[in-house]
Structure formats: structure tokens, C-alpha cells
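C-alpha cells incoming
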């Protein structure tokens, strides 16, 4: 793997000559996940605060007019907005089912009646078996958080639920996906890849498009971007990924954003 130069920093790998491309790009788009990308993980979701400097960097990038910035998260959009201090940029929440544009009307896509029924049954069953206290209910999904449990127990709980409910989910237009710290059943029809594609379709054809994320749910976005830009994975676990570059951790995301802002301000 080749380390970039030109001030990319010691934690950025796999994208030689990247900052020259940023400097010379006629248009730029930067999409980012939230948890594990802009903020370290926390047992309580609303305790996952962005690293110092992140919110200001995002505001400055968005205000400069030289980069279109969007946050794509599995979280509800209002949580992302609250944690980042309501930045003036597009927030896509709930894996694409919630759209909060930088300006204009907010949009919520609702599950089909069949999907709603499937989520209702699974939610009731998990609450009845004592899992409800760790269950997060979203507009188009249910996330069972296992962060904070013994890792062996967490895996056993996730596997038990998956085995019990995978066939029911498929019958009702739902899919199970692991995330860092739990397992989630969510509606098909929209994911981060679909959302990213929709956002990029509104960009100029010659836009330099970049997406940064850390989780399995971000692989949909990396795959959608494969022929249209650069996917950057936060953390190098050795697992297969559609991303083509890496940042070591959230701290290096701060450095990446700072360098991006410096580069475009020098053009």
C-alpha cells in the first residue's frame, strides 16, 4: 500500500497524488459517516460526541462554497444535527430514509405496510424477551445495541436473534446487518449507497467525489462510489472492502478535513 504525500499525514494510505486532485478539481463532493468517523464510539449513542474541531471544520467547508458536504448516517437525522450543532449541510439519516437538505424541506420515506408489520412483530418479540432496553427504534429500522457487553456474550446475543428472525425479515422486505456495536434489522429500498448515488446525480459530471466511513453499512456507499470517486475506510481491519484508501482512525479524519480545507483555500 502506498502512503500519500503532499501533507496527507501519516494516517492516510492508498491514494497517491490525492491532494493535487483536490486542489485541481473543478467541483468537489465530500460525504461522511458519523459514528466511528467523526466521533468515537460510545456505549450510549448520544454520548458519541464529535472530536474537537470537527464541527467547525465541517461548517467552514460547507460555508466556503467550494465543497458540497453531506453526512450519511444510520442514526436518525435529528441526532446527527444535535450532536454536530445543526451545521448548514445536508444530513441523510436512517440509511437514506430521512433527508435534511442544507436548505429546503425535510423528507421522510416511510416503510411499506408489510415492512411496518415486520418491524412491529420483531420489536414486540425483542421487548418480551428482555432485549427492549437496548433496542433503538428508528423510522425504518430497529437497532439492538450490544456495545458494553462482554464480546462473547454480544456475539451470542446477535447470532441468536439473527437465527430466530432472519427468515421472517426476508419475508417482510427487511434485512439484518451488523454494525459496530450491534445488529440492525432495516427496510430494503434505501441504503447509504442509494443515498450517495442520488446526491452525486445532482453534482456536475466532473465532480471529485469522496466518501469516508468505517462500518459494514458504509460498504454500500463505497460500492456505489467505486466508478465515480474515492471511498476511504476509517480503520484497516483486514476485511474485504470496496474502499480504495484508508485513514487510521477518527483522529486522522480531523487531520484529513483540516488538510482538505487548507488545500481548497489555497486555490
Amino acid at each position: 500500500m502506498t502512503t500519500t504525500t503532499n501533507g496527507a499525514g501519516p494516517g492516510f494510505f492508498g491514494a497517491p497524488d490525492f491532494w493535487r486532485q483536490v486542489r485541481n478539481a473543478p467541483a468537489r463532493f465530500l460525504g461522511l459517516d458519523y459514528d466511528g468517523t467523526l466521533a468515537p464510539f460510545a456505549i450510549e449513542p448520544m454520548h458519541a460526541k464529535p472530536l474537537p474541531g470537527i464541527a467547525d471544520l465541517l461548517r467552514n467547508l460547507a460555508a466556503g462554497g467550494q465543497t458540497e458536504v453531506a453526512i450519511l448516517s444510520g442514526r436518525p437525522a435529528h441526532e446527527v444535527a444535535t450532536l454536530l450543532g445543526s451545521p448548514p449541510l445536508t444530513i441523510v439519516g436512517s440509511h437514506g430514509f430521512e433527508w435534511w437538505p442544507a436548505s429546503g424541506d425535510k423528507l421522510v420515506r416511510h416503510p411499506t405496510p408489510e415492512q411496518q408489520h415486520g418491524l412491529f412483530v420483531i420489536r414486540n418479540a425483542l421487548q418480551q424477551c428482555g432485549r427492549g432496553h437496548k433496542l433503538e427504534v428508528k423510522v425504518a429500522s430497529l437497532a439492538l445495541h450490544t456495545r458494553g457487553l462482554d464480546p462473547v456474550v454480544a456475539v451470542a446475543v446477535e447470532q441468536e436473534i439473527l437465527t430466530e428472525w432472519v427468515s421472517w425479515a426476508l419475508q417482510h422486505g427487511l434485512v439484518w446487518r451488523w454494525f459496530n456495536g450491534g445488529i440492525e434489522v432495516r427496510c430494503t429500498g434505501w441504503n447509504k449507497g442509494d443515498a450517495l448515488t442520488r446526491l452525486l446525480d445532482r453534482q456536475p459530471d466532473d465532480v471529485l467525489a469522496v466518501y469516508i466511513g468505517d462500518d459494514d453499512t458504509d460498504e454500500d456507499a463505497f460500492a456505489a462510489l467505486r466508478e465515480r470517486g474515492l471511498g476511504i475506510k476509517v480503520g484497516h481491519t483486514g476485511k474485504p472492502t470496496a474502499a480504495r484508501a484508508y485513514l487510521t482512525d477518527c483522529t486522522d479524519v480531523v487531520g484529513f478535513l483540516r488538510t482538505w480545507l487548507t488545500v481548497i483555500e489555497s486555490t
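note: The two ends are 29 Å apart (CA to CA).
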